[in-house]
């Protein structure tokens, strides 16, 4: 396993730690049950993808395959549950699955990024004088020589 793969596995497992620990009530619902493992895997991989991407590691293809497979599993399990309990709302598409985990994934990702401080985290953007072309001296976020670290700050909602 190469270094990038090892980092990706570590980020994925960190997602599990952040989201599925013994004190997490929602994570407890997932448990080791085959019915809920898919949601836990989707959450962990989504955290890993987002954290890695913030640090300049693009594992989009690998994450997409992994997420797609688990999303299909979740949908199948939820459809079977729907047949037994037609009055409950269950995810029936990949979009529904993504929406169902978005808040937890966002919170876990933010917690990790606050500790790891990737370039550009916190809404800072490169100043207008920055040369955003990829050069050996520039980082993946485009912050290279001449970029002021305390440049303009984007306002959030």
What does this structure look like?
The protein has 157 residues and is mostly helical. It is 57% helix and 0% strand. The chain is built from five helices and no strands. The longest helix has 25 residues, at 60-84. The relative contact order is 0.12.
The tally of beta strands, per DSSP, is 0
| Helix and strand pattern | HHHHH
Bulk shape: globular
Q: What percent of residues adopt helix (DSSP H or I)?
A: 55-70%
Rg, nearest Å: 19 Å
Helix/strand class: mainly alpha
Contiguous uncertain segments of 5+ residues: 125-157
Largest sheet: none
Report how far apart the termini are.
Answer: 41 Å
Mean of residue pLDDT values: 74
Strand content: under 5%
Tally of helical runs: 5
Which descriptors apply to this entry?
157 residues, mainly alpha, 5 helices, 57% helix, globular, disordered C terminus
Short description:
It is built from five helices and no strands.
């Amino acid at each position: 396993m190469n270094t990038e793969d090892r980092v990706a596995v570590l980020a994925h497992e960190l997602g599990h730690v952040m989201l599925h620990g013994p004190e997490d009530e929602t994570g407890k619902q997932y448990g080791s049950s085959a019915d809920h493992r898919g949601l836990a895997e989707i959450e962990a991989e989504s955290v890993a993808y987002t954290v890695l991407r913030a640090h300049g590691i693009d594992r989009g293809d690998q994450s997409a395959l992994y997420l797609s497979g688990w999303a299909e599993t979740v949908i199948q399990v939820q459809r079977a549950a729907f047949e037994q309990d037609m009055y409950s709302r269950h995810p029936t598409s990949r979009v529904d699955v993504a929406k169902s985990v978005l808040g937890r994934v966002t919170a876990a990702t933010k917690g990790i990024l606050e500790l790891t401080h990737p370039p550009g985290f916190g809404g800072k953007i490169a100043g207008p004088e920055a040369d955003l072309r990829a050069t050996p001296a520039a980082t993946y976020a485009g912050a290279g020589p001449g970029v002021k670290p305390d440049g303009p700050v984007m306002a959030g909602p």
